[in-house]
Design goal:
460 residues, 18 helices, 6 strands, globular, alpha+beta
């Protein structure tokens, strides 16, 4: 039996094309969102050549393929005629899934295909940060500049990667989605945002369309939520425009009107909303410290992983920088450090529990990146697929952050939240910072092992 025949059999055994809402893949699995899970013949699928396993998990039917999953996915799309390449917007509102589960699945689906780029760049970036922290290379050398641009390009231009991936999820033209991302990343907007941030003369907070519609000036590089929701909106806009446009005009005017309306929606409403949510988070955190440092640690530690997942974590950095300026020290960045270590601990647990060689390799890379201060590969590539692991990391981050805040652990200068950052804490707070790191790693590792162990074993 060839691969294509096996794929045709999978489609038949999951209930046929009509039973498939969407199909996507991660590093080793084909993942299905089905109309009726009871129509699946799981045992028959497991016996197909090339299939390493199959199971129903977290409202998804997963067929384990291994390293060849991308090839299988492409052939499956051809067999389905591209009609289930991603989640149609209607499927995102399925009542059987909670909002948190829905959000995590969507983020996982968007980030799944781009995990290799994020994981590779994250590893390079983390190792570079470690070499700079250990003073093996000078931070101002050309070598660092070149390696950093190799590592940082993916994160800086993340909106483009997300736009293409989200377009597949929301079933809209990928190039229209990339065009919307290009609007958010256009140099005139980014330069205006930088001028505003540095209080340059003539800087403006908004650009005005026809002197009536404000386009708020923000830097969307490395943003997550604005572009994903912009592409989601674009999918609805495209369908609406295509429906009302006369057939003779569709070829030219459907993409024209869709891009214009979609870009305006992103620039005027969706993008600024995402940014302002981040700013609101920053103000909220400032208020917590006025109540109690320990309480602030408990809350900040709990929301930090979610903030990174949504791209709102950038709102915390200005608070830390302002603290360095006003007080000469900051207590927020040590909490970010604890969150990174907790994420690393949970990811190491998933690595230990995983059985598949390909998944172990990717997970180990993500765990090491998190240990070195780059958590995106771990969050997007691993923890969004194991929600209990994400919860475990959040609990560990919260407890460790509260612990170090109680003892007043602080930093006196900005530094990446990496394991190599520990020397920066040498002094009266070092022992508490070290204890916090151990707490974050151990608690997250143990909790993930206890809560997710059976789930990972079943998926192996």
């Amino acid at each position: 039996m060839g691969t294509q025949e096996a794929i045709n059999n999978i489609i038949r055994l999951v209930g046929g094309q009509g039973n498939i809402n969407k199909v996507w893949h991660c590093m080793t699995r084909l993942r299905f969102d089905l109309v009726d899970d009871d129509k699946v013949d799981q045992q028959a699928i497991k016996k197909l050549p090339g299939v390493l396993g199959a199971q129903l998990q977290s409202d998804q039917f997963q067929v384990i393929i291994g390293p060849k999953v991308n090839s299988w996915y492409e052939q499956m799309l051809s067999a389905l005629g591209g009609n289930a390449a991603a989640a149609a917007p209607a499927t995102l509102a399925k009542g059987r899934k909670g909002l948190v589960s829905l959000f995590m699945d969507t983020v996982s689906g968007v980030f799944g295909p781009i995990v290799p780029a994020i994981a590779g760049a994250g590893m390079i970036k983390g190792l570079l940060a470690g070499l700079v922290a250990l003073k093996v290379v000078s931070a101002k050398s050309d070598t660092v500049v070149i390696i950093d641009l190799i590592a940082s390009g993916v994160f800086y231009f993340l909106p483009f990667f997300l736009a293409v991936s989200a377009a597949r999820i929301f079933k809209v033209n990928e190039y229209l989605a990339a065009a919307v991302a290009a609007c958010l990343m256009y140099p005139s907007l980014i330069d205006a945002a930088k001028a505003l941030a540095t209080h340059q003369e003539g800087a403006v907070s908004a650009l005005w369309l026809l002197n009536a519609i404000p386009v708020s000036v923000f830097n969307y590089s490395a943003s997550v939520i604005p572009v994903i929701f912009s592409v989601l909106a674009l999918s609805y806009i495209y369908r609406w425009v295509d429906r009302i446009m006369p057939d003779v005009l569709k070829t030219v005017f459907t993409p024209t009107l869709t891009l214009f309306i979609g870009a305006l929606a992103a620039l005027v409403v969706i993008g600024p909303t995402g940014i302002w949510l981040g700013k609101g988070l920053a103000l909220f955190i400032e208020g917590l410290f006025s109540v109690s440092a320990s309480f602030a640690g408990l809350i900040v530690g709990a929301i930090r992983p979610v903030a990174v997942l949504t791209g709102m974590h950038h709102a915390m950095t200005p608070i830390a920088l302002q603290n360095f300026s006003d007080r000469g020290y900051d207590m927020l960045m040590p909490m970010m450090f604890m969150a990174n270590m907790a994420i690393a601990g949970s990811t190491f647990a998933i690595w230990r529990l995983s059985k598949e060689r390909q998944e172990k390799t990717v997970t180990l890379s993500a765990a090491i990146s998190a240990l070195l201060g780059i958590t995106e590969p771990a969050l997007f590539g691993v923890l969004t697929r194991y929600k209990k692991a994400f919860i475990s990391a959040t609990i560990a981050s919260s407890l460790a952050s509260a612990f170090i805040a109680f003892f007043g652990v602080r930093l006196y200068g900005y530094i990446l939240s990496s394991i190599f950052s520990l020397p920066a804490y040498i002094g009266p707070y070092f022992i508490f910072a070290l204890a916090g790191v151990v707490m974050a790693l151990v608690i997250s590792f143990v909790l993930t092992t206890l809560l997710v162990g059976k789930e990972v074993s079943e998926q192996a």
